Amino acid sequence: MDSTIVAILVQDGIVNGAIYALLALSLVLVFAVTRVVFVPQGEFVAYGALTYAALDSGSTPGSLWLLCALGALAFVAGVIRRGPVLRLAVTSLVLPAVVTGLTLWLAPLKPGVAVNAALALAIVTPMAPYIYRIGFQPLAEASVLVLLIAAVAVHLVLAGLGLVFFGPEGSRATAFADFSLSLGDLTLPGQALWILGLTAALMAGLYGFFGFTLLGKALRATAVNRLGARLVGIATAQSGGIAFALAGAIGALSGILVVPLTTVYYDSGFVIGLKGFTAAIIAGMGSYPGAVLAALAVGVLESFSSFWASAFKEVIVFTAIIPVLLWRSLRHVTLEDEEE
Fold first, then answer.
1. Contact, 255 vs 269, CB < 8 A?
2. Which of 244, 210, 303, 216 is closest to 20 using CA atoms?
3. What does pTM read for this prediction?
4. S-S: 210 plus which of 216, 218, 270, 317, CB 3.0-4.6 Å?
C-alpha cells in the first residue's frame, strides 16, 4: 500500500465520516434532551434520499402521503392531551397541506436540485416531531428501556412503510455539482465537497444555536436537568419536539447528500444510522465534539477495512465498539448501597 492509496482511503473515510458525524450529533442531541435512543434515525436518511430521488425523476414521492397521515395523527394526539388547538392545526394540518400542494405543483416540472432538496427536507423533517408527539411524548417519564423499545417499534414501522412507498428497487439522484477538484493524485468530486462544506456549516450552526440562542440554551438546560428545566419554566415537551425536528432535518439532509454518490434502498439507512450510533456510543452519548471525532474515525476505519477485507468491513466497524465498552465498564465504579 503506497501513500497515494492511503490518501485516497483517508479521503473516502473523511467524506463518509462527515455523514456519520451528522447522524451521531443528532443521536446525541435527541438522547440528551429526551433520553430516547433514536433508532429510526437511519430511516430518515433513507426517506430523505428516496424522496429527493423521486422528486428528481419528476414523480410524487410516497412519503408525501405519510407526512399527511402523521400530521393528522399528531393533531388528534395533541387534541386528546388538550393542547392549543389553533397551533396544533397550523403545525399538523396546514403545514402538510401546504407542502403537499407545493409538491404536487412543482414535482412534475422538475424544478432543479435546490428546489427538490428543499421540498425533500420539507416533506421528511416534520415527520420526526409528529412521531415524537404521537409515540414518545406520552412516554416522556418512562424508563430508558421502554423508550428504546418504542424507538425499535418506530424503526420497524418506518422500514415497512418505506418498502410500501418506495419499493424494493434502489435509487440514485442528480448530484449538487458535476465538477471535481484535483489535489495532486487525489480527485475530490463536487458532491464530496458539498458534503464536507454543508457538514462543517451545520456543525458551526449547531454550535452557535446551542451557545448563543435562548432556545438552544433551553435545550441544553433540558439535557442537563429535565426536572430543573421544568421548574424554571422551560417547556420540556416542546424541547423534545424541537430536538426531534433537528434530528429529522439532519437525517433527511444526510440522505440527500448521500443519494447522488451511491444507490440507496428503503432499508439502506439502517446500516448508515448504526455507524452514526457507533460513533455516538464511542463518544459516550453526551459529547458533541467527541461524536464528530469518533464519526470521522469510524469513517476512516470503514474505508481501510473495505480495502483490506471488504467482506468483513461492517463487522470490523461494529466490533470497534467492543473495546470502548470494555474500557468504559472498567472505569465505571459501582457504589454499594449504604446500609441504614
1. yes
2. 303
3. 0.87
4. 216
